[in-house]
Write a structure and sequence with these properties.
The structure is a single chain. This protein is an alpha/beta fold. The radius of gyration is 22 Å and the shape is globular. Helix 3 crosses helix 4. The strands form 3 sheets. Strands 3-4-5-2-1-6-7-11-12 form a 9-stranded mixed sheet, with helices on both faces. Strands 15-14-13-16-17 form a 5-stranded parallel sheet. A 3-stranded antiparallel sheet has the order 8-10-9. The relative contact order is 0.10. It is built from 17 helices and 17 strands. It binds alpha-D-glucopyranose (GLC). The site of alpha-D-glucopyranose has 14 residues, from helix 1.
Length: 402
């Protein structure tokens, strides 16, 4: 079987969240199983290993009434072929998203994925799209590319990693950017309350829908978790499944992880004590082997449930425990954690930043891992924590429940 896996980010090239971990790990695991899985993603300005890419070809992509250049590059990592779509104007920037023209950039990407298949020496049986960034590909494929040789045999799978970001834009985009104003079926299936909703398009057009855990697949059909899309999930329930993510146990391996002070493994746990002492030193906690360290590594945003922690912070700290929090996000959470650090010197460490090194030290050295998410499609941190012998404490939702 041939699978083209389209994602806006993938390890080791670009990462802003869990999607990149899955896009790096799943195709690799599929290839090991004998599947020809290849990844396709944008060539960002700050893409890692940029100088290692091999040029393949270039072609043009219609974006509404315009025609835009797209360069195609590739690279091989661990037996997986990665394709990169290049357009300086859209992607020659530092961060993957967060720009005023994200709607157009992402629409270009989704279209360029469809356009590109005819230039590859690879005709996929399945186009596997992920989250709103690739949500328009199944729409374009059916509406605009069904006449291209071989394209009508391609089946589409769309995986929801995060419903909080759906790609909602002003209705004028339907014609001006997507070029779909004269396609009544597309209009009906993309528009929601006068806006274009990219994710709604994918949910309506794809042959199969998956979410990243079985529980979340049930949750998205409800009003509370459905984020305004529960009507489509319910209508298409027969083709919706929940498949739990996994982590790459070679990347996350306490027996080989060079970021740790000492290696350890399930049968040989001795090294974890050294990792705990190192974490206490590194993060400004008092060196005390007996105080359990409760850790959080997360984006500090509402749906991660941190108000459940800040509300009872002093009760937690009244026990003989230490806490370390690593992450950035909403000001109110950052501020509560900074204040806690002042109030409990040597027992509470607030690192309001992004740091892969400290994150490894935390997974390796902490005793307990706190994940109070209000909603959590899957969550990878609890799995990484378990891999490093750090017991997760979670709220019963989505992948945390599974
Ligand atoms: C998103 C979800 C998270 C999931 C990850 C990978 O980041 O919020 O729960 O683990 O995608 O699928």
């Amino acid at each position: 079987m041939k699978i083209l896996y389209a994602a806006s980010e993938a390890n080791p090239f670009a990462k802003s969240g869990g999607l990149a971990d899955v896009a790096g790990a799943l195709p690799k695991a599929l290839v090991k199983d004998g599947v020809d899985a290849r990844v396709i993603m944008p060539l960002y300005g700050d893409l890692k290993y940029r100088d290692k890419l091999e040029y393949v070809t270039n072609y043009s992509v219609p974006v509404g009434w315009r025609s835009q250049y797209c360069g195609l590059f590739k690279a091989d990592v661990d037996g997986v072929t990665y394709y990169f779509l290049d357009n300086e104007y859209y992607f020659g920037r530092e961060y993957p998203y967060g720009f005023f023209d994200d709607g157009e950039r992402i629409a270009f990407f989704a279209k360029a994925v469809c356009e590109c298949i005819q230039y590859l020496d690879f005709m996929p049986d399945v186009l596997h799209c992920n989250d709103w960034h690739t949500a328009l590909s199944p729409v374009f494929l059916r509406e605009m590319y069904h006449c291209v040789k071989g394209y009508d045999n391609i089946k589409t799978v769309f995986t929801v990693h995060n419903l909080k970001y759906q790609g909602m834009f002003d209705g004028f985009m339907l014609g001006d950017v997507l070029g779909l104003a004269d396609y009544p079926a597309a209009r009906d299936q993309l528009m929601q309350d006068g806006a274009v909703n990219f994710m709604r398009g994918a949910l309506n057009y794809s042959d199969r829908l998956t979410t990243v855990s079985p529980t979340y697949a049930q949750e998205v059909c409800t009003d509370f978790y459905g984020e305004g899309l529960d009507d489509v999930f319910n209508r298409r329930r027969s083709i919706l499944s929940g498949i739990l993510n996994g982590i790459d146990t070679e990347v996350y391996d306490p027996w080989r992880d060079k970021g740790l002070t000492k290696f350890f493994s399930a049968p040989q746990m001795a090294g974890k004590k050294n990792c705990k002492a190192a974490l206490q030193q590194m993060s400004g906690l008092r060196e005390n082997p007996d105080a359990p360290i409760i850790a959080c590594v997360s984006r500090l945003v509402g749906h991660k449930g941190f108000s459940l922690v800040t509300d009872v912070l002093h009760e937690i700290m009244s026990m003989d425990v230490q806490m370390v929090v690593l992450g950035t996000g909403d000001w109110n959470y950052e501020e509560s954690f900074r204040q806690a650090q002042n109030q409990y010197p040597g027992r509470f460490a607030a690192h309001m930043m992004y740091s892969p090194n400290l994150s490894t030290a935390i997974y390796g050295g902490a005793d307990l891992f706190l994940m109070p998410s209000i909603s959590e499609p899957c969550g990878l941190s609890q799995m990484i924590a378990m891999r490093y012998g750090t017991v997760p404490i979670v709220r019963e939702t989505g992948g945390l429940k599974d």
